[in-house]
Design goal:
heterodimer, A: mainly alpha, 4-stranded mixed beta sheet, 6% strand, B: 154 residues, alpha+beta, 3 helices, 29% strand, elongated
Chain lengths: 360, 154
Amino acid sequence: MGVEATLRRLRDQTGDTSLLAVVRVGFGLLLLNEAWLATQQYSAGGYFGGHFHQPFLPDDLVPSAGVYQAVLAAQWIAALLVVAGRGARPALLVAAALLVYTMLCDRLWFHHYRHTMAAFSTLLAFAPCDRHLVLGRAANAAKAPLWAQSAIKAQVSVMYLASGGSKLLDPEWRGGRMMLGMVKGLSQLMQRNHLPASLVAAMQTPLGGSLLAKSAIATELGLAFLLWWPPTRRLAIWVGLVFHLVISQITPVKLFTMEMLLVYLLFATPDARARIVRYDPRRHSFVQIIASLDWLRRFELAPTAGAAFVVVDRGGAEKRGLGALAVVFGALPALFAAWPLVAAVAAIADLRRGSLRGTP
Amino acid sequence: MLDLGPRGRALLCVLFFGSEAVLVATAGMRSDRSYGFRMFPEASTIVVHVSRRLDGGRQVPIEGGRWQAHDCSGGVHSFRWGEMVRYPAPGQLDVPVGAPYGVESEVHRTRDALAWVAAHTPDDCETRALVAHIEPRKNGRVVDAIDAEVMRGR
């Protein structure tokens, strides 16, 4: 398919909007956290204009203490509306604008995660993210345009390209010097986060720093493309998940990880109830765990007395035993981190069974 | 209004990603490389030493982040650097402070902080200028020290 045809398809695509609603609620909670952080800073440290601040904007456009209080109130209201789903899309735009405005009023308030939050909130405002999970309103299951969901995914790729590209062009970064310095500076935090001391020590060697740097660059640049390509998408999502979880373990960066994991949901194929779990409700009580973790509504439960535990995957293939578990781990967000391990064990077991069957 | 038609969708994407491309391409022109998605640009630190230049050119270091000075009527006032300049700006003097957005950004912040303090200490009638001696370590490597001076308005 040509580039123009692909762009047209992405522009005109429609589909299920329930994932967008989950992402909206997640960003609403993150925006609430931002409002809380700003309020806490105001109560503990006073109005930012009362001490050194570094405005990008002319002084006349920096709010007075009174106006800033109104800005804080607006941040709270917008975030609450986003979570509730009422007026959520205009509220997302307002919340993004306020985030950018406050960062322009004081560059000390700038953080990549805030910029990222503003960018994702802006694009999310143009997506039909207010059809599910709305306070006091029934869900609207009708298909709706998903072009803005694709724009959010494109934003993820832009970020990886810009971040990975800038690191690649910086000789100190790609050589590992920056990584070495960062690991040294954060070694205590890493040990507090239960990383083995030997691993932390290995990361502080020139070879360790160099390998980490090159891996990070390759991961970012690779993810920018592999998240889009259906054959590699699931593995790329797993690599990205691990990448961001590792970052949150070795650095103080937590909110950025949450943002990225939220938007990763949008890379999941929208296929509600496309898999079937057949089971005996008297013998297979563990299916309740699957049901409780099935936040993306990926499984249709088919209880039948006396049935064997079988999972029918998206392609219609019946899986039993480890193969069935691999389908479950690959489809549930909470278990997804362990999916490659379970899938590898299932594949090895399949191979062994195949070779045993082939033995004369 | 937020449910765009096909033309609106294309226009919004061009505007959004076009602006973003400009911001990414020009990030190097901003001291903190902001809005360019340059995550973890450096693992650097700086040590800032600030002193006051008095009448006659004598330089007196600010120790422990505090100093005392007379106002123009002869009254004595105490000043605390850390109360006026706070994290993530270099709020602590004479000790290494992190420069997560790079040395250039932290030096820029220090210069602007000097200017802000100089402009917001009207009760200090003795100090003619604030002088900073900045010792950066870029990614753990010592680089040339930087001096900055901001004259106080009278």
